[in-house]
User: What shape does this take?
Amino acid sequence: MMGMDRNGVNQDGWRLNVVLVVALAAMMILSLAAGKVWVSPTAWLGDDLSALIIMELRLPRTVLGAAIGAALGMAGATMQGYLRNPLADPGVFGVSASSALGAVTSLYFGFAVSAWLLPAFALAGAGIGMGLLALLAGRSGSLILFTLAGVILSSLAGSLTSLMISLAPTPFATTEIVTWLMGALTDRSWDDVILAVPIIAVGMAFLFATGRSLDALTLGEDAARSMGVNVLRLQWFAVLGVGLTVGASVAAAGIIGFVGLIVPHLVRPFAGHRPSAVLLPSALAGALLVVGADSAVRILPSVSELRLGIAMSLLGAPFFMALLFKMHRELS
Assistant: This one.
C-alpha cells in the first residue's frame, strides 16, 4: 500500500521525488567533473582554463541534458497514460521523426551553416508533424485513430529521411546527417540551452496539465467523458506537450531514444500506478538517466566519444526486450 496522509497525499511519491532531486543534483555535479580530463570542484570558479571548460562547455551540456531527459521522461509517461499502453513511447506520435526530418532537410540543402537554422528547421518539422497528426486524427479524440495517425506520420517521416540520406549531394552531407541522427550533447553551448529549455518548459506545462484527465482515462473513454473529461482537449494538450518537448529535444541534440519508454517503468512501482503520480518522477528520473549516460560516454576509454543516442539504444533495446518477455509471461 502506498503511504497516504489524511488529505490523501501520496507520501511515498513525495519521498521518491525528493530522492530523485538529490540524486539528480549529485549526478549533475559529477557530470561537471567527469570527462577525459577530470576537473576538481575547487577549480570551477577560478580564472584558468579549467573554469572556462566548466562554464562554457560542461555546464550548458549538463543543463541541456537534464532538460532533455526531463522532457522525454514526462512525454513518455504521458504517452503511456494516454494510450494506456506500457510500450508507448514519444516516437509513437511521429513528432520525433518529423522533427528529425526537418533537421535533416537543413543539412541536406546546406542551410545548417548558421547555428540557429538547424534547430529552427527541426522545430518547424515538429510543428508540421503536430498539424498533420491533428488532421489525420480528426476531431473525435479517438485513441485508435490517433495511434494510427502517429504510426503513419512516423513511417512517412522516416521514409523521407532515409530518402534524403540516400540522395545526399556529397559524402560530407551524408556523414553530417547520419552523425546528427545518432544524437549527442557534444559541443552544445548556452545558445542551445536558451533555444531549447523555454520551449521544453512550455511543453512540460501542457503535459503536466493532463494528469487528472489521464487518471480518469484509465477507466475508459466513455467513463472519462461521463466524469467531465474533454477527450479532444486532452488529445490537444498531449499533442502540444509532446510536440514541444520532443521537438525541442531533437532540435538541440538529435534523436535520443528509449528514455520515454524506460523511466516510467522504473518509477511506477514506487510512485503508484496513477498516470498523474508518474509524471513528475518520470521527468526527474529522465533527467537523471540522460545526465548519467552522458557522463558515462565522456569517460569511456575510447578514441572518440560514443554518441549518446547509441548509448541509450544499447541500454534501451535490452530493457524493451525484457519488458516484452515479462508481458508475454503474464499473458500466457
Observations:
- The longest helix spans residues 49-83.
- DSSP finds 13 helices and no strands in the chain.
